[in-house]
Design goal:
Helix content: 40-55%
Mean pLDDT: 92
Bound molecules: zinc ion
Low-confidence stretches: none
Structural class: alpha/beta
Shape: elongated
């Protein structure tokens, strides 16, 4: 991309896409750093200096030619006023793009977790589309996105994709070591995170190993209702504005985990080697028919959570059905 910039062939809209938690946004910021570094665009294999005033401003989020849209701690979806001006709203991407570049160079809008612009009316993406279609001088969009299918086809077709892949397990354990995690815990989380250090750290913050214990109990048919209740005592931090939203998030997390466990059980039953599976350390739980039924139950429960049914009742019912399917 820096090479394309050196010959003035940089597209004015890019989508940095790939699995969640693997460093796409960090890569986007690194790329932007190179665009503004006062030592000029990095040579092939080179790097921005990270120390000049422009680099420092980009790193501090205060560069006048870079506008970053990042989710706040309780912000599930991006509202329209992040992109175009509305009464009572703050500074928007549109306001930013109206101004000329400070040194006649790029004006970059960097959007983190672009999948959060998905709305039933698609008003955010339609507003975005207009801005992408009529780029002002030097305007450049970098959209970071883990679920490109959440983008409108019209938006996707106007952006050049930059693909990122999941990391190897050695790379994941290296990143986890930087976060102070080592040994068995790190290896387990790296396996569960499937090439995404971000996912591994998320799972840890959500008390995934405690949650998995309860999933295993239910699958063994060992007091499934007790296991369902114990899910709520596992320590973990779950995002959400209200207590109910946090409960929903916990329910999603435990059901997703259960789905992965059951899917791996089925893969193991079909002959997949244990070391290739995230949950390959577990013995066979229940019967093949029970596992198939378990998968159905979990998918139904997952949809019930999105339908806003009581998360406690959803987990009770799912775990009881899992226990029965397991027997
Ligand atoms: Zn620099």
């Amino acid at each position: 991309l820096w090479r394309a910039a050196r010959s003035n062939r940089l597209p004015h809209a890019l989508v940095f896409q790939g699995p969640r938690g693997i460093g796409k946004f960090a890569a986007a910021r690194w790329f932007v750093l190179g665009l503004f570094c006062e030592r000029g665009l990095p040579e092939d294999g080179g790097a921005p200096c990270g120390a000049c005033p422009a680099c420092k401003q980009v790193l501090a989020g205060s560069h006048p030619d870079v506008f970053t849209i990042e989710p706040g701690p309780e912000e599930e979806r991006y509202k329209l006023e992040r992109f175009i001006p509305r009464e009572g709203g703050g500074r928007t991407a549109e306001d930013f793009l109206k101004l000329r570049a400070l040194h006649g160079g790029y004006r970059v809008v960097l959007v983190r977790e672009m999948e959060r612009t998905r709305h039933s009316q698609n008003e955010v993406q339609n507003a975005l589309l207009k801005m992408i279609e009529e780029p002002g001088r030097g305007a450049m969009w970098i959209l970071e996105c883990s679920r490109p299918e959440a983008l409108l086809a019209t938006v996707r077709s106007r952006c050049v994709p930059v693909n990122f892949e999941a990391l190897s397990s050695e790379e994941v354990t290296q990143v986890l070591a930087q976060a102070g995690l080592e040994g068995e815990e790190s290896r387990t989380l790296a396996r569960w995170g499937r090439g995404s250090p971000g996912a591994a750290l998320d799972l840890r913050a959500r008390g995934a190993s405690g949650l998995r214990e309860q999933v295993v109990r239910a699958l063994q048919g060992d007091a499934p209702l007790g296991a369902a209740r114990a899910v709520w005592d596992v320590e973990g931090s779950f995002a959400g504005k209200t207590p109910r939203a946090k409960e929903r998030e916990r329910a999603r997390c435990v059901l997703d985990l259960a789905l992965r466990v059951v899917a791996d059980q089925m893969r193991a039953g079909a002959g997949a080697p244990a070391e290739t599976l995230a949950h390959g350390d577990l013995p066979a739980l229940g019967t093949p028919v029970g596992r198939t039924r378990g998968l159905e139950v979990l998918l139904e429960a997952r949809a019930d959570v999105e339908r806003n049914l009581d998360p406690g009742a959803v987990i009770d019912r799912a775990f009881c059905a899992l226990g029965e399917a397991g027997r």
